[in-house]
């Protein structure tokens, strides 16, 4: 029996849409199942979430042909200032430290979503079929194909595919359906996300302040405003959402200081719960997990989406190579190449971000002194800075072809 699709992507958000985009010229038959109508396009203009794209992610989007459409809304990060509020330690990172034009870019999430969908749904991509709103109901794996039951257009529909890719988020329905139990560590924190006006120019500098309530990031936006990502306890998050705009701005000023002058005109505030998620298996026969379905990390270093995009670049390359050699793209032997490739990056990134939170949330005086000495030491050690920048920019280890500007 010939399957309906070569690849069925469950989840058409940013990560799932990026995979469809990467494979749009492959001639593989691709189906995308998304629960939200036209994911990304219908996001509210009140959604203030911004993404921090690592420099390596920008290179991937250049290879996909997406970057020209979003570059005008992408503000470069030329420097990062890291400090421990009320203490002596700080570190300054500069793109020049690593010979890069930028450390990364800050872009509104809705802008990236809109342009991704536009690129994937162009008329010449007739090998990609979008089914939304639709939801997965059941999944079975046979020797030669996977059988996926979805709810679509008021009825159940059964689809057969050579490979299922789970891109359906941290609470992945696919992962639960196949019995892959994620190891989830709740931080008992929420990220308060918004944006503010600043009275002084941000000069393309991003700030990361470790405060007694949690990490506070100020991110430079192309509009001249700054995105705010403030991690606080769940109880504090509820209180902060109830504050008036004036109360929020006053507390933000108190915790951040005056490096950006006075804050004003805060946008709508939203809260997102935070957790560290790891999975014991990123692949099974005819199944691969990508993005938040495979891992979630604390937003402290802005690594979450970048980690998922590197999943996309690696899996697209493995699939493309298997197609060219005539191998079965759903065979476990092929998919293990993807899992093996991604294992180190996932482990290093989750350990790094989790370690930052645990070290900087500890108020034990000797540890606080030691971490501030460490910040100052980092500031005085260019080789260490360069290494850190290469890792957080997605430019270390084995680089996918898309990161190197090469076609699949």
């Amino acid at each position: 029996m010939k399957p309906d699709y070569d690849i069925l992507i469950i989840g058409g958000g940013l990560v799932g849409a990026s995979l469809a985009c990467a494979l749009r010229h492959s001639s593989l038959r691709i189906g995308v199942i998304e629960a939200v109508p036209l994911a990304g396009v219908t996001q509210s203009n009140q959604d203030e979430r911004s993404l921090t794209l690592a420099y390596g992610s920008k290179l991937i989007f250049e290879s996909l042909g997406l970057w020209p459409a979003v570059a005008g809304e992408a503000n470069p990060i030329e420097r990062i200032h890291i400090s421990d509020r009320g203490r002596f330690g700080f570190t300054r990172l500069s793109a020049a430290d690593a010979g890069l034009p930028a450390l990364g870019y800050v872009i509104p999430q809705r802008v990236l979503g809109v342009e991704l969908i536009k690129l994937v749904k162009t008329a010449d991509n007739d090998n990609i079929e979008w089914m939304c709103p639709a939801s997965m109901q059941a999944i079975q794996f046979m020797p030669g194909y996977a059988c996926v039951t979805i709810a679509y257009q008021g009825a159940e529909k059964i689809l057969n595919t050579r490979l299922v890719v789970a891109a359906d988020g941290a609470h992945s329905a696919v992962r639960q359906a196949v019995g892959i139990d994620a190891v989830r560590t709740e931080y008992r924190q929420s990220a308060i996300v918004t944006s503010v006006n600043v009275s002084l120019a941000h000069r393309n500098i991003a700030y990361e302040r470790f405060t007694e309530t949690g990490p506070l990031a100020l991110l430079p936006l192309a509009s001249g405003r700054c995105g705010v990502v403030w991690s606080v306890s769940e109880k504090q998050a509820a209180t902060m959402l109830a504050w008036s705009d004036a109360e929020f701005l006053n507390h933000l000023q108190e915790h951040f200081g005056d490096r950006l002058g006075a804050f004003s005109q805060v946008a709508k505030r939203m809260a997102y719960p935070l957790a560290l998620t790891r999975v014991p298996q990123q692949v099974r026969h005819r199944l691969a997990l990508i993005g938040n379905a495979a891992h979630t990390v604390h937003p402290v270093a802005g690594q979450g989406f970048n980690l998922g995009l590197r999943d996309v670049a690696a899996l697209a390359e493995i699939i493309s190579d298997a197609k060219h050699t005539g191998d079965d793209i759903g065979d476990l032997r092929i998919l293990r190449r993807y899992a093996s490739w991604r294992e180190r990056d996932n482990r290093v990134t989750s350990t790094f971000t989790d370690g930052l939170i645990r070290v900087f949330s500890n108020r034990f005086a000797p540890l606080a002194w030691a971490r501030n000495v460490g910040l100052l030491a980092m500031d005085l050690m260019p080789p260490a800075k360069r290494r850190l920048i290469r890792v957080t920019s997605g430019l270390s280890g084995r680089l996918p072809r898309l990161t190197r500007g090469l076609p699949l």
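The chain has a mean pLDDT of 92. The two ends are 28 Å apart (CA to CA).
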